[in-house]
Amino acid sequence: MFWTEDCGIDGHTPVEPDELDLVSIEPLPSYVWYRDMAEFAEGISDQRTGRSLARAIQGRFKDRLHEDYPHLLPAWHAFRAARAERRAVDWLIDNSLVDDDTAACVLADHPDPDLP
Questions:
Q1: Up-side HSE of residue 28: CA atoms within 13 Å toward CB?
Q2: Given its phi and psi angles, is residue 19 left (phi above 0), alpha (psi -120 to 50 degrees) or beta?
Q3: In the chain, where the domains are located
Q4: Conformation bin of residue 18: beta by default, left when phi > 0, alpha when psi is -120 to 50
Q5: Cβ contacts of residue 23 below 8 Å, gap of 6+?
Q6: Residue 98 — pLDDT band, cuts 50, 70, 90?
């Protein structure tokens, strides 16, 4: 739970956010997620499917995936999750919230999954 004007950080005691030692998490720009879609499409072994998904990135990637290639949804979700987890670790490193050894272990355990 996070701070609210009425309930505070613990759900009972009101606090001001400025009183807390918080680190802001900025959203990633859309091009980062676009690049994930492009790299996923490039990694698909069926070239026709990969080209179709690459064309669909211009606005219909997720629709195309759901409508035409539902069998690839688990692979897409795993790919996207691995990328998001690694970006989270990178953010923790950049904000000195984890040490390099811990980060290296986590990053090694979260490679891009093999694509069909």
A1: 14
A2: alpha
A3: 17-108
A4: alpha
A5: 95, 97
A6: confident
Torsion of CA 2, 29, 51, 114, to 10 degrees: -50
Reported pTM: 0.65
- Residue 11 Cα distances to 7, 22, 90, angstroms: 5, 17, 30
Radius of gyration of the chain (CA): 19
Tell me the C-alpha to C-alpha distance, in Å, between residue 65 and each of 7, 35, 53, 83, 85.
Answer: 42, 16, 7, 18, 22
Q: Give the residue from 90, 89, 48, 93 showing the smallest Cα distance to 69.
A: 48
CA-CA distance, 58 to 102, in Å (whole number)?
37
DSSP, collapsed to helix, strand or coil, labels residue 112 as coil
Residue 15 DSSP class: -
The model's confidence at residue 115, banded by pLDDT at 50, 70 and 90, is very high
pLDDT digits (tens, 9 = 90+) for 32-56: 999 999 999 999 999 999 999 998 8
